[in-house]
Amino acid sequence: MRTKSTLAICILFVAGLTLSFVKDKIWTSKFLTVNKDGSITYIPDEKGNIIPDFSRVGYYHGLKKIPQVGVVKTISPVKGDAGSTIQQAIDEVSAMPIGADGFRGAILLKKGDYAIAGTLNIKTDGIVLRGEGNTVQGTRLIAAGKGLRSLIKISGKGKISEVSSRVKITDAYVPTGAKSFQVASSKGFKAGDRIIVYRPGTENWIHDLQMDQIVERNGTKQWTPESYNLSYEREIVAVDGNKITIDNPIVMAMEAQYGAGLIFKYEFKGRIKEVGIENIYFESEYANDTDEDHGWIAVDFDRIENAWVSGVTSRFFGYSCVSLGGDAKNVTVKDSKCLDAKSVITGGKRYSFNNSGQQNLFMHLETTEGRHDYVTGAKTCGPNVFYHCKSRNTHADIGPHHRWSSGTLYDNIDTDGEINVQDRGNWGSGHGWAGVTQVVWNCKVKGAAIQNPWVSGKNYAVGVQGQKLKGRLEGKPDGEWEGLNKTDLQPTSLYEAQLKAR
């Protein structure tokens, strides 16, 4: 009896040690705390900056589920060039009235092969192009023959235009992560207004950032103020006196010493919405492994908002599976793959999932043989999110590519290459500082260089597993590193935690 009791005590003691070990292994970030009710408390730095809320991205900011749109046109495989047949169907549906749900309808492409010699164009609201599977046995759209091009191009027309006077932000400093600020006068503004939060480029900002001192080589261009005016699309949530509250946070501090910022109402006539591409396998013909005269982008979006790409696969394209232009906003790209690109492995090639737009969400993606697999372009304005994405046999790095992308979350990226946020110096024509408020959360990498720019913000590496790299250039400020090579970070996903908290 005594022996059994002693054995039981030993078992409980060992179990207690095991539980204690597991509990001690779990760790949380010093930058935020997830409370018992799921809310999040953010810990500000000495200037009040916090890691921003990245949850309001993608299709309708994630507030609406991607709908299942009814089929209004069905196409079966045809011999020869199927481009004209599919384009005719797109044009027919484009001429249909928009329903109460905001859609004209879905075009269903039955299983089989569709050779397309040119580009398919969608230029109006409310159209879904849907296949019956994203494998070679499903619906296969083939970029046939020669010609560097997008296979599907979805775009409205026009550009942002101002519809009110500009009003100055009066705070001496609006920190990163803030959702409100004071203006000189709120007269004429109300909840629901779409506004631009405008951050001007200034000579002294560029000088302090040392981007007028890039080491010269053939073709290097120093940064100029007029090229770095940044326009963040936002919506007013509330007006209280001269205090304006917006839907998405500030992702780069507004500083009086660098021209502060201002707001104005805008409209975008011609921008389209409610377009989806679903369940299709895209393939490009090619002559050899370095051929560049063939299909370049499978799905190309611009001048669009509240759209999606879901369940697609591309293979052998030279640039990307999905590329979002600078006027693509609130697009969700999910459950998709970019495989086996064919091009020279250098320069502006193999940007597997490319984003230059705002408030876009890329999630559950896979790539092989890419270069910059999950990447933003010059002056990309956030927030934007890459979440739960995998990359194999990569030939370059993931992250902001060049010239000051602001406000991107890289969350649970698993790559056999690098994630870098750094001063790229004179690479390209003078890439310089790649980005600010770039948050690399719980990612697995071969290596990572995460640096802070000289002024105007920070970059974060929280729970990164892999080698910490020095970066291309010596003497650059270290980023905000925490928990290098520590597992069991909680929350596991910052994006999911922020989504639940809102």
From TrEMBL:
Source taxon at top rank: Bacteria
InterPro entries in UniProt: Pectin_lyas_fold, Pectin_lyase_fold/virulence
Protein name: Pectate lyase
Source species of the chain: Pedobacter hiemivivus
Taxonomic lineage from the root: Bacteria, Pseudomonadati, Bacteroidota, Sphingobacteriia, Sphingobacteriales
